[in-house]
From TrEMBL:
Protein name: Uncharacterized protein
Recorded superkingdom: Bacteria
Lineage: Bacteria, Bacillati, Actinomycetota, Actinomycetes, Pseudonocardiales
Keywords: Membrane, Transmembrane, Transmembrane helix
TM region positions: 6-28, 193-212, 218-240
């Protein structure tokens, strides 16, 4: 029985390892495309009134360039030459398409929740899609509680809005200071990696002990340890991360930009679109550096990392970003 269980554990471990390798291969294939998209947005569709894009410079298909421009609130206009594309930013008064609404009962619950937030707090974060409405709908609801839209961030078709009862000069004014000893996004990821490595080392030690002693109790302990380690890897992939409120996620994102020269954002930990990260970083004095995938992202199967560098450090280094 014990031998059968150990054999089953070995099969599961081999299958799990093969799955992880396949997922990693997919992540590597997607990495270059994701990096090019993020770089294109940061260079051409971030706080510019007009933008001219030369498709020969950007290894991104022309339909994809147009799609990214639309998501950022840009409309195409006649280009200066036939070889390039030209876009003009449109003010946010035109709300644009909104994703299909959720059930009406959920809309009403979210409206009531937002009203409660605005009655007790100066600021709140919201997405129009949560109401099944438009920017104008959100502005009207906020106005009834003495607030207005202060920021429109991210994807124009599904933006993240900051509502406030008073004006702000910086996004930092809309979030509390981070708690003492709070861990950064990259810090959470490193802690998870350390825990997994410790688990692998423990399993390796148990294997060595079992080979040396052949004691049944060691064999059962080894089997349970392997199953526990596999569960620690597989369960988060299948179940995903707990979904926190948008205000909590945006607070965590803004707090990441705390003055460090380099800030690494693990998108799963902040739980927002990369376009929102680009907007927040730009306002807080950071520029896009790199984007890469490792295991597990918001699709649950691999993970997106986006790295920003302080703008003044980029200037000092004479970077071409």
């Amino acid at each position: 029985m014990q031998t059968l269980l150990l054999g089953l554990v070995a099969v599961v471990a081999i299958a799990g390892t093969a799955t992880v390798l396949l997922i990693q291969a997919r992540a590597l294939r997607e990495n270059d495309a994701d990096s090019r998209r993020a770089h294109l947005v940061s260079e051409c569709f971030l706080h510019r009134q007009e933008s001219v894009v030369d498709p020969r410079r950007w290894p991104v298909p022309v339909p994809e360039i147009r799609r990214l421009a639309a998501r950022r609130g840009y409309q195409e206009m006649p280009p200066p030459t036939a070889e390039v594309l030209a876009f003009r930013y449109q003010p946010t008064g035109d709300s644009g398409p909104i994703p299909p609404p959720a059930p009406a009962a959920e809309h009403q619950a979210r409206r009531a929740e937002l009203a409660g937030q605005l009655s007790t707090q100066d600021f709140a974060w919201v997405r129009p899609a949560e109401f099944g409405g438009t920017l104008d709908d959100v502005a009207g609801l906020a106005g009834r509680h003495g607030a207005r839209i202060l920021r429109v961030l991210g994807d124009r078709f599904d933006p993240v809005l900051l509502l406030g009862r008073r004006p702000i000069g910086s996004l930092r004014e809309a979030v509390p200071l981070p708690a003492a000893g709070s861990r950064s996004s990259a810090g959470h990821h490193r802690a998870r990696i350390v825990a997994l490595v410790a688990g692998v080392v423990m399993v390796a030690a148990l294997i060595a002990l079992y080979v040396a002693t052949r004691r049944a109790v060691v064999g059962w302990t080894l089997a349970l340890a392997v199953l526990a380690l596999m569960a620690a890897v597989v369960v988060p992939l299948v179940a995903g991360s707990p979904r926190r409120a948008l205000t909590e996620r945006m607070t965590r994102l803004v707090q990441e930009f705390d003055g460090r020269d380099v800030v690494t954002i693990v998108l799963r930990h902040v739980g927002v679109d990369r376009l929102v990260c680009l907007d927040v970083a730009a306002e807080l004095g950071y520029v896009y550096s790199t984007y890469h995938n490792s295991l597990r992202t918001t699709t649950r199967w691999y993970e997106g990392w986006i790295v920003f560098v302080r703008h003044d450090r980029v200037r000092e280094a004479g970077s071409g970003w």
